Amino acid sequence: MQVLEQLPELALENLLIEPAPRDTAAAILYAALRIAAVSPDAVMGVFPADHRVADTRTFTEVIGQAVRLAQEAQHLVTIGITPNFPATGYGYIQRGAALENSAGLPAYRVTRFTEKPDAETAQAFLNTGLYSWNSGIFVWGVSAILKAFEQYQPELYQRLTAALQTHGPFNAQLAQIFPTLPKTSIDYAILEKADNVVVIPAEFGWDDLGDWNALERLLKGEGENVAVGRHVGLDTGGAILYTTSGDDLIATIGLEDVVVVRAGEVTLVVRKDRTQDIKKVVQQLKSQPELERFA
């Protein structure tokens, strides 16, 4: 298991595994309930696993401020990334009034969340100077987030709480109930509804590695293309090429601004501005039994 490979000192009882993927709301509630059972006054952080942080010193400072806000005023704290281009693949957070009596880094009440806008809307957001990218990094007291779930998602809260009443982190009731829980994000389930959400705008060399375009941002050199693995190209520019096998070769002719990925039996070819649609293709594969193994 990759988590234990990277954190071999982690106690097994502290490794929580979802019985089924149900998006972030159910996973966060599950973790919060488990933490509260041990330490009801704890502060909880949520950190996506596929992000890169270059400036760890600033990142530590930002998280420290988030912890203070969570402890002092029971805020649900989000970390916003100051945008430097009109990204259409990220969610956005609009900030409102500044928090009063907030020592340290400035924080603001959240006015609204917006999911992945089109290019024109994203540019308009940048022009206002009031929007941050939604990093998916959150900090809150477990008591505060549980109170929010109880208020805004009572059925989810009650069902998962009941499932955890049986002893042990992995029990038959949890395994039976979890796949039937609503598949929804923490943003939609809680953050868009709660009135105690605040954002700390920050810059710490953040990058979302969950998109193939991240390879270009991280590995771009002086060449026209970014290639991981063997590539031979003719009249090809602005391409991202990736092979999982050192024996494979990707050959391209007359292509511009594309991503080509070769992994096992699957080859992906997609325009760089359409990589967010890869999930739709995966869903198509999963819906067809004869193709599901390729998903």
TrEMBL record:
Domain Nucleotidyl transferase: from-to ranges: 14-217
Highest taxon above the source species: Bacteria
Residue intervals of the MannoseP isomerase/GMP-like beta-helix domain: 229-285
Pfam family, one: ManC_GMP_beta-helix
An example Gene Ontology molecular-function term: nucleotidyltransferase activity
Record keywords: Nucleotidyltransferase, Transferase
Name this protein carries in UniProt: Mannose-1-phosphate guanylyltransferase
Organism: Deinococcus radiotolerans
Lineage: Bacteria, Thermotogati, Deinococcota, Deinococci, Deinococcales
